[in-house]
Recover the amino acids of this structure.
């Protein structure tokens, strides 16, 4: 079955530090890949996505590249801010599974940015 | 415009009781999803509606769980004979028909079964 593995947190960084949150996946078909973010007290929001190999998703200074050869979709940001403190979820949507609209999430990585 | 809303925001019940959780999707969104998020875990898929019908209910854990969407808009997740293990945050998401991969999530209902 489909699965998403992401690094466990919490991750604590100083403001302006470089961020990497690792994510790898297992899927039977050709999935679309996503990063969602959940800010404190708010609902999940789509941060970025990539629908095919070598695509790069980007938003709010965050980037992730769909690497089919390594089945990875690592999230990066060059300079984090305190306002980036949140929980980040890696997810996939497999177009070829029987439940083709189903999204599989990772466990989430909590990021805390300190001033 | 208004986002996805869920009511109640918190629900405390006793083991064995029946509960209903409501989701109001974004107007015009034909796709609606229910997820369950346990503490320290990512959301776990429960059921997906396309319009009024359940296109995929493979994530419902057992027959105590049931969901409806009679008019293709509001959806209700129903849990019978609740158990302590049902305690979790129940999330609803909706998506437009032309961008099914872009799910908009509600704030969730936090269910606690005592």
């Amino acid at each position: 079955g489909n699965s998403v593995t992401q690094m466990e947190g919490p991750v604590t960084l100083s403001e302006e530090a470089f961020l990497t949150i690792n994510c790898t996946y297992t899927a039977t078909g050709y999935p679309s890949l996503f990063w969602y973010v959940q800010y404190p007290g708010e609902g999940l929001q789509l941060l970025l996505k990539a629908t095919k190999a070598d695509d790069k998703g980007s938003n709010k200074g965050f980037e992730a590249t769909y690497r089919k050869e390594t089945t990875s979709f690592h999230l990066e940001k060059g300079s984090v801010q305190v306002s980036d403190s949140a929980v980040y979820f890696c997810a996939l949507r497999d177009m070829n599974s029987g439940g083709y609209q189903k999204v599989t999430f990772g466990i989430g990585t909590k990021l805390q940015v300190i001033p | 415009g208004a986002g996805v809303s869920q009511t109640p925001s918190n629900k405390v019940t006793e083991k064995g009781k029946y509960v209903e959780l409501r989701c109001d999707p974004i107007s015009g969104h034909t796709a609606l999803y229910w997820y369950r998020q346990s503490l320290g875990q990512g959301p776990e898929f429960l059921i997906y509606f396309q319009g009024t019908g359940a296109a995929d209910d493979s994530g419902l854990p057992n027959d105590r769980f049931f969901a409806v969407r009679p008019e293709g808009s509001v959806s209700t997740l129903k849990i019978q004979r609740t158990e302590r293990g049902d305690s979790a945050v129940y999330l609803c998401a909706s998506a437009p028909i032309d961008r099914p991969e872009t799910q908009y999530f509600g704030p969730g209902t936090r269910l606690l079964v005592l």
